[in-house]
Amino acid sequence: MTLLAIDRLSLAIGGKLILRSVSLTVAPGEILGLVGESGSGKSMTLNAIMRLGPPGTRTEGAIRFEGADLLAGPERAMESVRGRKIGMVFQEPMTALNPVQTIGRQVAECFRLHLGFGAREALAEAAERLRRAGLPPEIVPLDRYPHQLSGGQRQRVVVAIAAALGPKLILADEPTTALDATARGGIIDLLAGLARREGAGLVFVTHDLASIAGIADRIAFMKDGEVVEEGSAPSIFRSLRHPYAQSLLAASALPPIAPDEAAGGTEPIVEAVDVSVVYGGGVRAVDGVSLTLMSGESLAIVGESGSGKSTLARSVLGLEPLAAGTVRIAGTDIHRASGGALRAARAAIQAVFQDPYGSLNPRHRIERIVAEPLHLLGRIASAERRARIARALADVGLPPDGARRYPHEFSGGQRQRIAIARALISEPKVIVLDEAVSALDVTTRAQIVALLRELSRRRGLAYLFITHDLDAARAVANRVVVMRRGRVVEEGRTAAVLAQPHDPYTKELIAAAPDLETVLAAREAEARTR
Amino acid sequence: MNAFRRLAALLACTLALSACGEPQARANDVRLGIALEPPNLDPTSGAAAATDEIVYANVFEGLTRVGAHGEVLPALAERWDVSPDRLTYTFHLHPGAHFHDGTTFDASDVKYSLDRARAADSTNAQKGLFEPIASVDVVDPLTVKVTLSRPAGDFLFNMGWGDAVIVAPESAATNAVKPIGTGPFRFSRWLRGTQIELVRNPDYWGPPARLDAATFVVISDPAAAYAALLAGDIDSFPNFPAVELLPQIEGDPRFAIVIGTTEGETILAINNARKPFDDLRVRQAIAHAIDRKALILGASEGYGVPIGSHFPPHDPAYVDLTGTYPYDIAAGRRLLAEAGFPDGFKATMKLPPVAYARRGGEILAQQLKVIGIDVSIENVEWAQWLDQVFANGDFDLTIVSHTEPRDIAIYARDDYYFRYAKPAFKALMAELDLAGDDAVRRPVLQAAQRMLAEDAVNGFLFQLPKVGVWNARLMGQWANAPVQANDLTGVYWQEP
Amino acid sequence: MKRSSASLAIGLAFTALILAAAGLSLVWTPYDAELILVEQRLMPPSAAHWFGTDQMGRDVLSMILGGARNSIAVALVAAGIGLGAGVPLGLFAAAQGGIVDEIVMRSNDLIFAFPALLLAILITAIAGPGAINAIVAIGIFNIPVFARLARGGALALWPRDFVRAARVAGKGRLRISLEHILPNIASVLIVQGTIQFSLGVLAEAGLSYVGLGAQPPAPSWGRMLAESQTYFALAPWLALAPGLAIVTTVLGLNMLGDGLRDLLDPRIRRERAI
Questions:
Q1: How many domains does chain A have?
Q2: Which chains touch B (3 or more CB pairs under 8 A)?
Q3: Which candidate in C2, C99, C161 is best for mutational testing of the A interface (most A CBs within 10 A)?
Q4: Who contacts B20 (Cβ-Cβ below 8 Å, separation ≥6)?
Q5: Mind listing the pLDDT tens digit for each residue in A149-175?
Q6: Does pTM top 0.90 for this prediction?
Q7: Domain C3-24+72-273 carries which CATH code?
Q8: Which domain holds residue A309?
Q9: pLDDT in tens, A474-502
Q10: Cβ contacts (< 8 Å) between B245 and chain C: which residues?
């Protein structure tokens, strides 16, 4: 008996077609992985099931849940379905939870609202649900507020709420994308456990194949509002037919860097000695870190959120005041220099940040954005300026007529290219990339990584590559430094460290974020032994 | 059914009981509205008109007092003798009078009061009244002899001013906040900013007051005054502040409107000591530019008699000089040109916060503009006006009403803010002092009026009317204001 | 979008009407607003005098037009003072942080702590009444409003990546405040500007009502209201005209501000492609 049957669903918002004749099924206890990039319509599909689309949404087709068409019923009917029969887990746990209510209260609310439980009963039920979600009240008391929990713990609360009333179907929209590697595994297991133990159907939307490759029973690939391929996992991965699905699979596995590539020359470009950064309240974000980056070398700094890697990056850029230590860029102490020496140092080290939407001033044209660092080079004639801008855009693969446009006219990947162009224009010796590919789609990530490698080869650029994504680190960096709680716990050649980690934390990191191949191999092995 | 009926009966009883609420009988007191709160309650020390409006004849009494028609009446002195040379006045005092705190009243109190008023360090606002006194002698407890250094024609009238009331040495120092007098009312309390309360003095030496109590409530806003009157919160406004509202009140049988006269000459005061106003031609030009009729209509809703000099029209010695410089724009422009201002000049006009001044000022500013004088208006508060204009003479033009009775002599004072003090005028005032009876005084007064009018010392506008609005059953209030006072001694409620 | 466009349209219409009245008064009014003709006093509205005449015979419509000029001028310049002094102050405080921020914000709080109209009355009572002092008094109160708004907006922007990128490009705090921060908070400031403008009109009317605004003979709505009080039963048009004028202006400006806010915010959101 099919739990959920989406039958030729088409959806349009304000005249624009978002979903085209999408058909999917989910059986009880089945895990369906819905994979696609941004704009593929995967999130919209989930919203359509719950009828959470914006006003002005027109639909055609049917969504049958336990036989009844959800699209045909009145809104009141949906109110009894949402939360009780179908639960939803969103991407960003901080915004899914009410910051001013305790977690106990928020979970208890389900019982009070839908089942009319009294306060005490509801709280008892809430405690039980949180325990099942991996948050036993002895360790995480019910009167904690969301901001007092870690990202992973918050997401567990969200799952507890979604699963509280024993729904038949759980919809999860990128539930692990915003989490650290170590937390990710826990949530995936939690959701998979719900499906297996309680027989709930699970639709798991993601852009990251590796995260569902281990648990999905079936996978559907979506692009431009259509389902382009679907089939049973894990066998489907070995027999993809649609070109898009194939390219997505290829892009998921980034080719690692060659052992002697980006190994660096003999001239030190960045020398950080005993750097410490202390925040208000005595928190040591960076605690006595030293590293050296040679010209042309690519060094990755990996760690989870709170490890201090971004703070270290900012202090290397001279953006964050040091509590102790020095940072030299091509010999100049960037924190103490001034005037011409400072400008020269700044021209030598540029940056690309994580958020392609936030790193460009929405009110400036591209040419102005890209040319921003030029003032470090003194007076430049406008003809020369225009030439440099055109060259920088060409270097990153963007057409020169893009210079007159505004950021909102470009996609995320294109914007990140613009940010790279901006970083190149002052002809720096080193570029700091702070999670520069983490917010990108799989295919875009692959493209940008390829671009970065090519630029490094052609221009002898050194990279300081900050990331929590080990795959990306492997693909870009020759050397890696692992940070935890402000300190360096391990360092060495990337391939060596990731293959044979010494520090237990490094081991934990690697185990928590396996790449697609490893996951598939493990699953196939398990399938054979059964 | 039974319960329902019981409920209805209960309801009816409640209604009936509430109907037999307050008795309809009226309390025997009066609430009067005044516009300005007095700075203090001692009329003999730095008094303002507002002080006298509360305490004159009610709380304090002098040797003589001024009656409703401006006549001189006996008060604490029951009779007096004047020597033929008019230099010695012997006052015979009433026996049995005493102060509100119980202390007796006798001749020593008279000597104390008069000596205090005329002392070098006296803070009396009208020291000039006591200037002719050479000595005050106690003959016996009920007889006082006052010797003058020169004859003073108005002496008996002057002793009836509020500034000349008799105070006791025991209480004089605190009269400002706790006035102790001999009058038919006692001071009860002063709620600053709100009201001053008086109660009847049961031990008064003369005929007792007919009211039990009187409260003077300070209401400066004209709209609030009107509302208070209609609501019955205030029984009487001896000087109703919003003349424009009279048409609303006329015809309402609850209220009586009584329009009388005051001693207030409303003038456009000119600084005679400042250029170009020191030139007679300039002042004449100003006089030619004034259209009194339009002014009275706009500033005072048509209430007010035009004047041509500093003298009230209701006084028998009055001479109508309004035609001295008739309304003539051409003449005005010509005179200004002759004085050297063919294109006019700029001047400022400082206006105190009274309706006739603020409104009158706007109208006059425009009238003066027609002959070329560009007047810019500066609205000031009373404190600023008293300081800048009155005390320091720092002004070009201003508008104010001089409400003291028989005050034409101010034009002889060197320090008075219009700075006129012409020797010929001073001579006239000296003559007036020497004059004995009215027949001799009258031509002197008339000559004085003429001199002021011809010299166009100030712009003489109109006599301020006394607009009294009060409950129609309240009897005995003055129609006119021959002195600044609200004499409540004869006020009573008429039974309906 | 429908709801906000109605707000914007009505607000724009009312504001345009008052601005037109003010502008018109610069070149023409039916009669001289300051001309006193006592014999023509208290005439009810008629073909010759659309809003009648006041207690001095002045044409009320002309006074309303002249008063519009006065109200607009005072409120506009006062809002300008607030923007011109407050925004740089707020931007400076956000850029500097630390003790400078503390000093600026606590001074702000000090001014906020005073009831605005009372302090405006105090300032004009000390410095003297008149339109110029009214502008200064009201302007002083606009400064902390804009300072706080600019600072809040700036603080939210400083950690943003594009500002970091500008810092990496070596730009100083002043330059960043001008080139990056200010353009991105402009829409909030504009909306607040219209609100402060309407508050300025109200404040000017309040000051004029107690006699501390524009002095006679210059026409002023607040003074017209004060003087019309005792004539209300006799000549209600004397109070209705300035009252309606004030209400129309303040309502119009508020609706304009609301409409602008709705208009400007979604546009910024729409710029983010999902």
A1: 2
A2: C
A3: C161
A4: none
A5: 888 888 999 999 888 888 999 999 988
A6: no
A7: 1.10.3720.10
A8: 268-495
A9: 999 999 999 998 999 999 998 889 889 99
A10: 230, 233-234
